[in-house]
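Quick one - first record:
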Amino acid sequence: MGQHIQTISHPIYSTVNPPATAEEINLLESTLNVQLPIYFRDYLSTWNGQQEQVPFIGYNSFLSIPAIIETWSMLNELFEDAGQIFKYHSGMGYQEVIADSFEEFSIEILKRFQANQFSFTDGVISFEDHYFV
């Protein structure tokens, strides 16, 4: 797969990390308290994410094991109480609560999809009422 990526885009390939070790993969599994699917273990054994947040597919980059653990820890801390969902952008002086639970948030998103109140431009989904930006 690495050769295919290098052929398609050398700038993306240049951001790929070396393979993860068995110890790093085991650390990820123990930290997340899961057994990773063999295909994901194989992916990590091929390369351990990317060094930079360069889009790999669409607007998404592949996270390294340290980045996965950091993201997982942050989300666990944020949703520890399974509380409110809020809108926050870097530099905002406030947080706007948009739902009192993840269930309520999911229902609101689904309503907008069912009512066709969204657009899809340049690979990004936007809601007409800017519910979640």
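second record:
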Amino acid sequence: MKSSDLIEIFPSVPNVQGDCCDTDSNLEVETDCCEDSQSFYEESIELKEQLKEHFDKSVNVHLYNYDISMDRVMAQKKLSELIKQRGFQHISEDTILKYVTPAVVVNGNLISFATKPHLELVIKEIN
């Protein structure tokens, strides 16, 4: 294992389309999508900690925080490039986080997208 291994975790973004999480609308609020997004972020934090523990902190693990504008822009650019390599040119950079996350990238290789990432898959990719 190289000491320069980099694991990037892209948590799912909250579904801000429509009235999901919109408490000001007159329509019934769909709390499932709000809870799903929050639980995916919490699971991403847990995955990050599990990876650091498993590799005894010998890998760099970056969890993107979309509240930080630089992280959001970097995540959009990186995922857009990787998804286009997979043949999904029709997904614009503006909507990439909505359709592709949650995702995991290991050493520049997209190993999981649009599904919940699993610890075993990431460990297998590094070893």
